[in-house]
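Researcher: Please predict.
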Amino acid sequence: MAFACSALTADDVRGKAVIEAGAYDVNGSVRPHVESLGPASYTGTDMRPGPGVDQVADAADLPEGSADVVVSTEMLEHARDWQAAVRGLAGAVAEGGVLVLTTRSAGFPLHGYPDDHHRFPVESMREILDAAGLTVERCEPDPDPASPGVFARARKPQGWSWPEDTAERWAAVHVDPPR
C-alpha cells in the first residue's frame, strides 16, 4: 500500500476516474489515500462482493479505456489467468493514464484469498507491461526482503493500441508458482 500511495500524486488523480481492481479489503486499502487526492470517481472492483467493493467484476472484464488511473494491489497473484487480468487492467487505462500495480514474487508464502497462483519476478513484470505497450515508469522490488514482491507504475501512451506480439511475448515470460 505504501508504494501505491507514493506512486500516485494529486496531479495523477485530481478530477480523474479511478478504478481499483481487487478492491476487496482483506488487510487494508489504498482507497482513503487516493480519495484524499480528489478523484472525480473511485470504483472498487473485485470478483466477489465485500468490504471496499462497489462493483463485482473480474479484472479481465474491466471496460476498455474507462479510467484515468487503475490501481491493483496484491491481486494479480490471485488471478487464475494472469494474462487475462493484465489485459483487463491495461485495457481499462485511458490513453495518457496510469496503472499502479503491486504483486508478490518468489519466496512470498502461499496466501489464498481465495486462491494463490503466481509469483512475478521484477524483470518479468517489466516485460509484461512493456509487451502490453505501456511505458514503464517504475518497476522495482519490494524493499522489504521478508515480503518479496514487485511494484510497478506504467503509463498508457497517446495513440496506444495492443502490440501485435503481446501474446507471444507474454508466453515467453517467466512466472513462478507459489511455494
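Model: The chain has a mean pLDDT of 96.
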